[in-house]
Amino acid sequence: MNVADTEIVISLLQDSGYSHCSKMEEADILLINTCSIRENAEQRVWGRLDIFRREKRNRPGALVGVIGCMAERLKERLLEREKMIDLVVGPDAYRQLPRLIEEAGTGQKGVNVLLSQEETYADITPVRLSKNGVSAFIAIMRGCNNLCSYCVVPYTRGEERSRDPRSIVAEAEDLAARGFREITLLGQNVDSYSYSSGSRKVDFSTLLEMVAKVDRGVRIRFSTNHPKDISEKLLQTMAGHPNICRHIHLPLQSGSSRILSLMKRSYTREAYIGKVKLIRRLLPDCAISTDIITGFCTESDSDHTETLTLMEWAGFDFAYMFAYSERPGTYAAGNLPDDVPETVKKRRLREIIELQGDLSLRSKRALMGSCVEVLVEGVSKRSQNHLFGRNSYNQVVVFPSAGESPGDYLNVTIEGYTSATLTGRRTGTANSTGSQ
Ligand code: 5AD
Ligand code: SF4
User: Which domains does the chain have, with CATH numbers?
Assistant: First the structure.
């Protein structure tokens, strides 16, 4: 989501006559787009600001700006602690950036962290940062109304707003015309996408179908689904369109119903299992990945075991796993004790990562000998003679190059795997997408 936002910021600034450069030493304005989701994300930003401070000492004329979630959350602290910061701009105020930069140029601080109920940047064509020219993001909504008790997002990104589907389809058409071959629709909870115009209401399934029909040679992905909201209708839409990738990111967070209730996730262990069964029934050939938070308030060893057993049962293909990080201002920070000792959080996280390592290998092993469709993204980092791309399940596949180009769809027979990648051999050109 932050990459997608950065692309919007670059576009807005280009419209005002600025140009984007990638080397800090060449920049007149240094902007850092920030994330507040866990404490260590913020720590990394403070570290980066140390580098900016040194740069500014060498070039006092340069402007430094903090944008995004940390700007929203820590406006005062940023301005107090880092005297060199000239701009503090929240996620809904990017249109103001050109004006705020002008102000900052005259020695004032340029600050705007107002959140909006309407801003979706629907009319802005993002400047694509993707180097391969193959895959692009489209943000379909902003903000979140779910108020999970651990999460800072509803406070830093504001209330949920859905973008006009016509602007989304137009953006997808533009990407397809420019040769992009994969589009990922982004929202904090795509299942609650909803846009009404007159008597017509567009939900996420309808939007997904509209985007999938733009060009059958363009693959569609989306993220993130919410287990409480993901619907049969969405799965049927996926089943009806081979160019919608067979992958669902369905954050579990915890396998214990007691912890899920404290997290205010609005589903139980059993309900989550029910959603996975529904996916398996309607889309037997669909990868499922997840997010897990370990060591949440009051989590016991038996709660932790419930997470492990559910992971094992679901056989997740991939997972993002985190130790709980208390975020100021959230319901959990104010009302629940962060009482799992750091050493226990770390041990449980290790156990979860280890189990997921096995599950990820199992998921790759299951593909041995089969043929998958791969969208080529570029040359492998490890070897000039190999290319890499992704299959429909979002797994990276590496194979010997025979002069193919980024954007080509190929059939690759899987012959090996490591924890991170599948390896294989090309067995043909795929002329449709999403076959496997
Ligand atoms: N501590 C740890 N992980 C968190 N996430 C969100 N908030 C926190 C927190 N306070 C994780 C969740 C979410 C992912 C984007 O980040 O797993 O799905
Ligand atoms: Fe945070 Fe929950 Fe919204 Fe995800 S759904 S962004 S975890 S509040």
Answer: 2-112 (3.40.50.12160), 135-365 (3.80.30.20), 371-429 (2.40.50.140)
- Check pLDDT > 60 for residue 71: yes
Mean pLDDT of 28-36: 97
Provide the 10 A C-beta neighbour count for residue 159: 14
pTM of the model: 0.96
Residue to mutate, 42, 147, 150, ligand 1, most ligand atoms under 8 Å from C-beta: 150
Phi, psi angle pair for 429, to nearest 5° = -100, 135
2 Cβ closer than 6 Å to some ligand 1 atom: no
Burial label for 418, CB within 10 Å (0-12, 13-18, 19+), is: exposed
User: How many helices and strands in the chain, by DSSP H and E?
Assistant: 13, 19
390 with 374: CB under 8 angstroms? yes
CA distance 73 to 336: 21
State both tokens at 214. 């733009």
Beta carbon of 227 within 6 Å of any ligand 1 atom = no
Give the bridge partners for 319, in sequence order: 290
Phi-psi region of 252 (alpha: psi -120 to 50; beta: other; left: phi over 0): alpha
- Predicted confidence at residue 435, as pLDDT, reads 46
- The closest of 29, 190, 165 to 97, measured between CA atoms, is 29
Q: Measured between alpha carbons, how far is residue 50 from residues 27, 46, 143 in Å?
A: 17, 7, 29
Q: Which ligand is closest in space to the CA of residue 251? A: 1
Q: Is the CB of 266 under 6 A from ligand 2?
A: no
Q: What percent of the chain shows pLDDT beyond 70? A: 98
Residue with tokens 């504001």: 158
Residue nearest to atom 14 of ligand 1 (CA): 291
Q: Whose CA is nearest to atom 2 of ligand 1?
A: 324
- Ligand number with the minimum distance to the CA of 324: 1
Beta bridge partners of 357: none
The 182-186 sheet, strands edge to edge: 135-139, 182-186, 219-223
Distance (Å, whole) CA 158 – CA 116: 7
CA of 150 to the centre of ligand 1 (A): 7
**How large is the average pLDDT for residues 262-272?**
98
Q: Give nearest CA residue, ligand 2 atom 4.
A: 188
pLDDT in tens, 397-424: 999 999 999 999 999 999 999 988 999 9
> Each residue of 102-119: b (16+ CB within 10 Å) or e?
eebeeeeebbbbebbeeb
**How do residues 327-340 score in pLDDT, each as one tens digit?**
999 999 999 999 99
**Nearest ligand by distance to the CA of 189:** 2
